[in-house]
Write a structure and sequence with these properties.
UDP-N-acetylmuramoyl-L-alanine:D-glutamate ligase, eleven-stranded mixed beta sheet, globular
């Protein structure tokens, strides 16, 4: 895309996703696979690819190993994503995705990633600080590699919000915990239910507890909390509303990147000024559409519109199972 990027995605720990299709595979046994493919991945890379498919001018940055950067460069070129990744010595990690089509589930094996030098991290921070005013939204995505402290996202959220940018955060573990404990929260927080439980250090066993946890984050400064719950759907909470979006049934090719597609949908809905119900429909349609494809790709708009029309959106006060 030739237009100035409106969105920047940040992926400090990208991965080459090796997706292996093995129906009925058994742990500890010799298994036959039906096929495999390798895609440039990582949460922010996926978000950028999905936004580009929707027609949003987008740039992507992060830390990318020089030794195997070619698949990422190819993806960015094909999608029209502006490549602002910082190149570092070594090879970007490989993430193994074992897909069982018979069960419709995916098992992830993620390596830790390259150890980041202070120089490389400073280069990435300089890239973030030099973004033009036209970049109105920044998505901080995925895990942090070795060498990057757990408070990195929390610090960047405060700085980016101070610049007047809309900040979305999709991470897990200690990085999410630190960001949710910080004084300044992102405007958009999108954990799945398990990530939210881990970050808060407690189980959320009822819908009322999930809703209360989301509302607490809203009180502390977030503007939209979206808690994804797999096939069941997602809870979306603002200061004014709480909705639950239930996706339509689709034929699953791979669930890899479904949450990233939801983040992309929520960001595009923000850019377009959609209502919460409209955002819920778009984000759920993006997520449902993405799992009908291998890799981070959206279906055609007509198909997405049809999916959005099938999304069931209900008030959550509290939700019912």
């Amino acid at each position: 895309m030739s237009a100035t990027p409106r969105v920047l995605t940040v992926t400090p720990n990208p991965a080459l996703d090796l997706t292996v299709h093995a129906g009925g595979w058994q742990r500890g046994a010799v298994n036959a696979a039906q096929g495999a493919q390798q895609d440039a991945g990582g949460k922010g890379v996926n978000v950028a690819a999905i936004l580009a498919d929707w027609g949003v001018p987008v740039a992507a940055t992060g830390l990318l190993g020089r030794d195997n950067a070619a698949p990422f460069e190819t993806l960015f070129r094909e999608k029209g994503v502006t490549d602002e990744f910082v190149r570092v010595p070594g090879a970007t990690r490989v993430g193994l995705k074992l897909v069982d089509p018979t069960l419709g589930d995916t098992t992830d094996l993620n390596l830790p990633g390259l150890t980041v030098s202070a120089r490389a991290l400073a280069h990435l921070q300089a890239t973030l600080r030099s973004q033009p005013a036209g970049v109105g939204a920044v998505a901080l995505c995925g895990s942090l590699p070795p060498g990057v402290h757990a408070g990195f996202y929390a610090e960047e959220v405060a700085r980016l919000r101070g610049q007047g940018r809309f900040v979305a955060l999709d991470t897990s573990g200690e990085a999410l915990r630190a960001a949710l404990q910080a004084e300044v929260l992102p405007q958009l927080v999108k954990p799945n239910i398990h990530e939210l439980e881990a970050a808060l250090g407690r189980s959320l066993t009822t819908d009322a507890e999930v809703l209360a946890a989301a509302r607490d984050l809203i009180r502390r400064g977030a503007e939209l909390v979206a808690v994804s719950q797999g096939e069941r759907g997602a809870l979306l909470v603002t200061a004014q509303e709480a909705l639950f979006a239930r996706p339509p049934r689709v034929t699953v090719q791979s669930t890899v990147g479904a949450g990233d597609a939801m983040v992309a949908g929520l960001i595009s809905a923000h850019l377009d000024g959609l209502s919460l119900a409209g955002a819920a429909r778009r984000a759920t349609a993006f997520s449902a559409g993405s799992i009908t494809r291998l890799g981070a790709h959206l279906p055609p708009r007509a198909e997405l519109d049809a999916l959005a029309a099938q999304v069931q959106v209900d008030a959550a006060q509290p939700l019912t199972h």
